[in-house]
Amino acid sequence: MRRTRGGKNRGRSKSRTVESRWTEVDRYFSEHLLGSDPILESALEASAKAELPPISVSPNQGKLLQMLAQIVDARSILEVGTLAGYSTIWLARGLRSGGHVVTLEVDSKHAEVAKGNFKRAGLQKVIELRLGNALETLPTLFAEGRAPFDLIFIDADKQNIPAYFEWALKLSHPGTLIVVDNVVRDGGVIDPDSTDPSIQGVRRFIEMLGTESRATGTAIQTVGIKGYDGFAIALVGDNDSQ
ω into residue 162 within 30 of 0, thus cis? Predict the structure, then answer.
């Protein structure tokens, strides 16, 4: 019987080919549906120059966030996890006139890069960046009466997503849209025995959302320039919402 050589290498090559195609398709959509945007491109360049991790949302995902803000006619948006402010700019562009974004960031270096990006985008007056641990900042926002927010985007450390989601519900009103990024984890979300705190955090959140009477939700798997991942969307209702 003839043996086939290099099976594992061919498997890896095929995987790289598939991922390359995902990226090519993503770029095709960006080119034809988004076009060039010097402000957003400069935000990514500033992030790379400062050696921040390359984990911002993709351009197509950013446009989705903007459109979701427009769909809910958002006057107030909360973002948990600023990084360089790339997604924040997309969100701010979706605000109705007179609206504002509050974005939370724990890392001072990230915050400084983001502030520069907001200024270049001409959005520094509508974006408020709060520096500090979000698990401390979120209760402060609640105590200050800053709620409710119309759209909440959670894109921070995944092990704490359940806590962020609980605070998001407290800072919401019926009709608030909550978007949680990176919930597929390259498929790792289905592994109950994973020792990865991020995967376990996502799993706890998904299980919370599935039994939450105050909101209904779904999750979408995605492929593209960010690889294999996905996001969850929850719509807040009243206490009897299902």
Answer: no
